[in-house]
Structures are given as structure tokens and as C-alpha cells.
Amino acid sequence: MTTHEYNTCVKQYSDGIFRFIVKNLRDEFEAENIVQNTFEKLWVRIDQVEMKTAKAYLFKIAYNNMIDVIRKNKNHTDLTSAVHVASDNYEYNNLIEYVSMAVNELPAKQKSVLTLRDYEGHDYKSIGDITGMSESQVKINIFRARKYIKAYINKLELMTL
Amino acid sequence: MILDKDNYELIMFDLLEGNLSEAEELLVMDQIEGDEFFFREWKLFKATVLVPTSSMVFPGKASLYKEEKKVVVMSKRWAAIAASVCILAAVLISWPREEDKMVQVITTVTELKSDSNQVVQVETQKYSAFETEINENRSGSRGIHKANQKGAELGVKQVFNNIELEQIVIPHENMNDVEVLVQNRERKIANLFEIRNAAYQEKQECLELWLINSAFLFLSLQ
Questions:
Q1: How many beta carbons lie within 10 A of that of residue B149, not counting itself?
Q2: Complex ipTM, two decimals?
Q3: Residues of B in contact with A150 (CB under 8 A)
Q4: Size of interface A-B (CB pairs under 8 A)
Q5: A28 and B60 in contact (C-beta within 8 Å)?
Q6: Crossing angle of helices B185-221/B98-113, nearest 10°?
Q7: CB atoms closer than 10 angstroms to residue B6
Q8: How far is A150 from chain B (nearest CA, A)?
Q9: Residue B57 and residue A18: Cβ atoms within 8 Å?
């Protein structure tokens, strides 16, 4: 990969990786660090990474960094979950907000595969490459995530009626 | 593919993910639109697709960019033409000219004159200016020159001003050998060759330098 191609990667993928991490961690500061680290690693291995595999490579590094952060901050995640449970009673009229709340409730694996699928348009195989899951595992996790979100929305809609 | 309460979620999921064929999609959509329950469930399923917020951008993007080396884009054909022109120019500039040879010979004589009054160079056929130069200087050299004109033969020793001199021949670049009278044959031959070679080596190096530079230019453009 050339320097020009590296800069193209920054232009094309940095926002997507940032969104993906923010959505999963709900911590913009941590997401910024992860994006920085991700591109530093790409720069170090610029001679070994080809442009056509760069997107999957970047998301994989970002995903692994994110998993490390989640493991380190397990207490933090529990705390934020508690906050969201407490806010269940609030009325949300906006469907997007419902979905966003539901996504925040998802287990880390399901949240990751769903955001990779919907935000970045990855297919099952590339999501599998990034997360280390098989294609069928990816499909099952996406299915469970959607089923959970559907049930979550349904429940909130019934509550607001 | 018939929808029922047990399988509808899996089928709707495949429909949403684009995993069904066109025919299957049409069949499933017909059933969804014909049933109120399935229709509501389908609406909920469609709502599970996350919409990326385009407003969320990475704030540190500028710091990630790396400086790119500027590359001069030139086709191989133009590069080859440019290199050829450079090489041709180098050859033309560095080609030995007649005036250069004369200057070189005069330089040789000047060096010799500053030495120990024992050597005179005679080269009458081509460089008349050089001959004048000699005659206008030392008396000893004038005498030797005259002696040479009288028919001194190669290798014959002559005596002028009580100095025994020997006539020798130095091969010259322009094919006109330079005749020289020397007292200490070995030393003066060495001196003359050094002076001549230095003058020509400088020109040769200049030519070589141009050729090497042109070659490098050509290779760097490839």
C-alpha cells in the first residue's frame, strides 16, 4: 500500500470506524483513541497490507481494540446498563431513539455484528473475518439482535399506548 | 415458502437481509401484505435496521494523514526521449575540440617552463602559436628549438648551453606526436604524461559524469 492509498483509507474509513466504536462503546474519547491506534498500526504495516483488504484489516484492529477496552472497563459497562434500565420509564416517541436504546442493551457481540452490518454494509464473511466468528455465527447473532430490537420496540410502543 | 407463527421471524429476517431469491421475496411479500399480524411484525422488523448518522465524523482525521511524496508523472516514451536528449547534449558538450588541444599543449609547455630550464617541447606542424610562445621565452629553449629544426633525430643526444639533451616522442591525442627534448628522460616523460593525462582526464571525467548522470536520470524516470 502506498502513502496515497493510506490517506485514501483515512478519508474513507476513519469516520465509519469511529461511528462503529462510538455506537458500541458509547464513549467518544475512547473511540478516538482506538481510531488513532488503528491507523497507527496500519501505517506501521503499510508494506504488508493491500488496499483491497485494508477495510477489513482496519475494522478488525478496531474491533480487537474495542474488545480489549470492553474487558478493561467491564464495571463501566455495567454502570451504563443500569443507567439505561433506570431510563426505561421515559417516553420516547421517536422510533430511531427506541432502536438506539435497544442497540445499547444488546450483548457486545450482537451489537458489533449488527453495527458492522448496518453501518458499514459488511457481508457475513467480512464480519466473520473481523470478529473471528463463522458466517453462520454472524448470521445468528444478527438475527438475535434484530429479534431483540423488534421485541424492545414492540414493548415500548405498547407501553406508550 | 409459507409463513406461520413458528417460522415467520426467520423468513422475515432473510427477506430483510436480502437472502431470498426474487421469486421467494414476491411470495413472502404477498403473504405479509395479506395478513395484519405479519404486516405489523414486518414493519417492526424493518425498523431494526440501523441508520448511520452521517453527522458523526472522526474529529482527529487531519492528524492521521501522512505527507505524500510528489511523483512526477511522465510516460516511458517521454522519459526515454528526455534521457536521450540529455546524453546527446552531454556528448556534444564534452566532445574534445581543436582549440582545447591547443590550450592543452600550451599548458604543458607552461608547466615545463617553470621547471628547471632543461626541457623544451617542439611541435611545429600544427601549433604555430605554441612555437612562438617557446621562442619568445628562454634563450635556452630558443636554441634547442633551432637545433631541432635543423634536423635532430629521435633518440639523438644534443648539447646546448652545456646541457646534454635527448629528443624523444610523446604520443599525442591528435595523432601528431609531440617531440620533446629532455635532460632527464624518465622524469620528464613522466611529467609530460601526467600533465597531458590530467588535462584529458578532466575532460574524460566530465564526459563520464554526464553519461552517468544521464543514466541515473533515465533510470529514475523509469
A1: 11
A2: 0.75
A3: 41, 44-45, 47-48
A4: 80
A5: no
A6: 140
A7: 7
A8: 6
A9: yes
Comparing alpha-carbon positions, the chain A residue that sits nearest to B43 is A150
- Binned at pLDDT 50, 70 and 90, residue B149 comes out as very low
Q: Measured between CA atoms, how close is A74 to chain B, in angstroms?
A: 25
The shares of helix, strand and coil residues in chain A, as percent rounded to the nearest 5, are: 85, 0, 15
Q: List CB contacts (< 8 A) between B45 and chain A.
A: 146, 150
Percent of chain A residues topping a pLDDT of 90 = 47
Query: How many CB atoms sit inside 10 A of residue A138's CB?
Result: 25
CB contact under 8 A, B48 and A142: no
The dihedral formed by the CA atoms of B47, B49, B54 and B58, expressed in degrees to the nearest 10: 130
Please check whether residue A143 touches B, CB under 8 A: yes
Which residues does chain A have with pLDDT short of 70? 75-93, 157-161
pTM assigned to the model: 0.53
> What is the per-residue pLDDT across B82-136, written as a single tens digit (0 to 9) for each?
888 888 888 887 776 655 444 334 334 334 443 444 444 443 333 333 333 333 3
pLDDT digit string, tens, across residues A102-139: 888 899 899 999 999 998 889 999 999 999 999 999 99
Residue B56 cell numbers, joined? 458523526
CB A20 within 8 A of CB B57: no
Task: Looking at the complex, report in whole angstroms how far the Cα of residue B7 sits from the nearest Cα belonging to chain A.
Answer: 13
